[in-house]
Amino acid sequence: MKKGKYEELEGEGLKSIMEEVFGTVTREGDLYVTSYGALKRLEAKLVGKSALYVSTESDTSVPEAVGVETIKRFNQFLERATGYTAKERKNRLQKKAREGKL
What we know:
Blueprint: H1 5-9, H2 13-22, E1 26-28, E2 31-36, E3 39-46, E4 52-58, H3 64-82, H4 86-98
Antiparallel strand pairs: 1-2, 2-3, 3-4
């Protein structure tokens, strides 16, 4: 996550972003859980001041249009939660892989 994003997400901030992007969100322990389109289940929680845990379960039987919209929403959620665009997240991941930090 970008510096300063933690303050936006702590408390109910992460839940608020999830609700704006996906709709209804429930809480299961320390996880916020939702579903949307091709995402049967999406779980998210803060893991310290610089990390966000996200786990997804997909439904591959949905129509292509639903899948495309789901990807757009998921990327929108990650950008709002982390402060990084999809391209920036990809580049950071590739850099970490090259450095052997994965």
